[in-house]
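During the second year of the project, the team shifted from modelling isolated chains to modelling whole assemblies. The rationale, set out in the original proposal, was that interfaces cannot be judged from single-chain predictions alone. As a representative example for this report, we include one of the complexes processed in the last quarter. Its constituent sequences, exactly as entered into the pipeline, are reproduced here:
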Amino acid sequence: MPQSVLNEVIDQLKRFSDEEAAWQPVQKALPALRERVAWLEAQADLIPAPLVAVLFGGTGTGKSTLLNALAGVRIAEVGDRRPTTEEPTVYHPPGISQDLGPAKYVQSGYLDDLVLVDMPDTDSVKTEHCARVLDLLKSADVVLFCGTQQKYKNEQSIALLRPLRNERKVVCIQTRADEDPDIRQDWLAVLEDEGIAVDHCFRVSAARALTHKLDGRPGADEFEFQALEAFVTEKLPPERIGIKERNLEGALKNTLDGLDR
Amino acid sequence: MQHDLGNVLTQYEQSLGEFRADVAHVPALHEALFDGFEDWVRQLTLKLAPRLAGEGCLIVAFVGGTNTGKSTVFNCLLERALSPVSPYGALTKHPVVAANALRYEQCLEQGKLLPDSFLPKPLDEADMATSDGQEDMSVFVARHDALPDRMALLDTPDIDSIAEEHWELAKSIREAGDVLIAILTGQKYADQCVVKFFREALETGRLVVPLMNIADDQDAGFAITRGQLDEFCRYLSCDEGRASDTPEAPALAAVPKFVMPRRAGTESARRPRPVSLDDGSLHLMAYLESLDAVELKRKILADSLSVFTQRAQEFFDRAGAVEASLNDGVALVEDMAREASLEHRPKPGREVVTVVHDFIQERATGPDRVFGAISANMAKVPGWLFTKARSVFRKDKALAVSEQELNQQQRRGLEAIAHRLYGRYSTAAVPRIREGAPEAADYFEAALRGLDPGAIAARVAGDTVQTDSYIADYRAYAFGELEKKWKDRKFRWTIRSFYNLGLLGSGAGMLVLLWSGGWMPGLALSEVLLSLGIPVLEHTAARGAAYLWGDKLAGLIRKWQGLQQGALEKALLDHLTYPALGELRGILASLERNVGRMKELNAQCHKAC
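Output from the structure prediction step:
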């Protein structure tokens, strides 16, 4: 769908939501719809802006470790105590316009048109983490879904993605490849059952990748970290317009489907 | 103690079951009553009532998140690959119980060792527990003779997977287990649903034994694992996992924590064993065998009972509030029906006069009787004049209407009352019931809407108006009253004087006519006179009676009206109020009966623990 058509549909939705409806069910749905339309408008304006990719997953799935590995520097705190990440880390190229709320902002010299966000967990005892994740997901374009053998089938993570079907590009990353066997096949089947489309899935050991990077031997492990890194930092940013448009299209479709119901 | 308590709990369960079945007729009310109390009901039906027959056999359940290695630890304790393991999560779809020969038989008997909500089946093939085609509450029982009598091991599906049917099962397993081995990992000890699950288990007196699986033994003495286990225990001890400086709950502090080391990279290394974190020589199995099953069961029972009776008190408070508001609602609509019935003021019509006439005629002697007979016979003489005269003289319109008209009038009046009551129920009763019991109000409103006011009004009128019988009734009452009066000489004389005076007057008038005008015109005139005279006569007698004992007569009507109103009230209740209340009355009765009983039983339980 070309951008002009997208904008027109959003405009029509806006006009519809601004009218006072007499029918009660519509009246009740209006505040939510207005919020949604405002979000759609903001997203449409952000199409040329850098792509926001968020690291998403349960506690202990190695989101922070993966960010560190991608950055090649220890910028996010990692640890054995769960939950570790209290405050999101935003790793961004110089001069970004998106406001992602209270977070630790780290400027990157090597990212181009891509903002990486290390989010808190979706499932720990600290329920406020999950709320923060919900908030950050609103600004996300790409969800880098981190999972491990123990944490790829958890209701709490998948429940957050369900309402965003087709509205976000989802990339699955099995972390801790050095510890767990390959679960990607089962994982993708689960997500497919849930109606969450995933077209890329990587299996990496972030901890090892970081060690190798720090040792000056990038690509020394047998897993797919290098492919992931190339995909995230080189392949995704140039495609950002297309990704965002498809997300927006999905969001519009979901909104219109919601209206039908 | 256990035996008595068993009886008490069985009765408790019966009362609760009966009550729930009754309330289930109004689902909204059921929800209002039981919302938030499912765990309490579950505790009674799954844990307390059936499990007292446990005879000191501990059910040790291996519980944890998906892919944390529950089956691995389970198999490790049995030293046998009984429960299948897989790298993919959520493999175990049904619980697997391992027990020795004695307990094996008991486990297979539904409701004997395991709660009767489970369907025990023998485990013939290892992959049965992972197949989809089984009933939801299937439990597979495997015989493992190396186990002691005192315990049965239970491997379970995960508590945090996306498969919703596992969640329900997990709750039942929490109730079934006496000892819950919390299978944790470095990734899964701070998960909200995991912590919540074990926190609730702890609250109901289960022994929770934390076991860190795949523990990293790279550092000496499992320093990281130790920290993680401590944190897990603190999460269990505080309310919402916020303050991690909460001290450990005493129930948890006394329990040794276990670790199952990661299978080291060197394949030749010995198989990992679940051992105590503080005492590497204490094997989990040895610890489980050392537990005093009877004491533990007693403690669980006491803890569960005290939690249970406390929750019961809260439930009774809620049920009491519902009872009060239901009571108010039912009383309100019944009162409204009663008030409506008072609007009915039936009148006996011309009967008041005729009855007096008939009575006097019956008691009359000699000339009175002759005059009376003439009067009665003449009264039967047809003719428009006769009718005309009656209508002229009878000023009292109520007394003038015919029975048929009266019947119609009454019927219309009664139908209007039924319609008005129906309207008042919708406009006044529903909002007032809603103040106290919104669910009951919704039910009542819906039931009202389902009723046909026209048909109800017709049935109410049909039941109430029975002209034949009410005239007979009225006559019987009047005769009875008059009879009492008649025994009074003075009254008798007075009433006869009135009556005879009238008769004599018209008789004299007739004679004068005959004498002065000859036979033919005389007869014609006498007919006119009689047709005028008889009504005058009757009226005079009736007036006389009214004058003499008007109060009494009015009282008679009032009494008779009361009876008629009573009949109307019954008809209104039967045809309108009770159908609209529907199941609510039954529920109220059931509530009074069963909750009252449960309160008594609760007091006994409380005393027992």
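The interface with chain B takes residues 58-61, 80-83, 123-127, 130, 148-156, 158, 179-183, 186, 190, 194 of chain A (CB under 8 Å). The CA atoms of residues 112 and 205 of chain A lie 24 Å apart.
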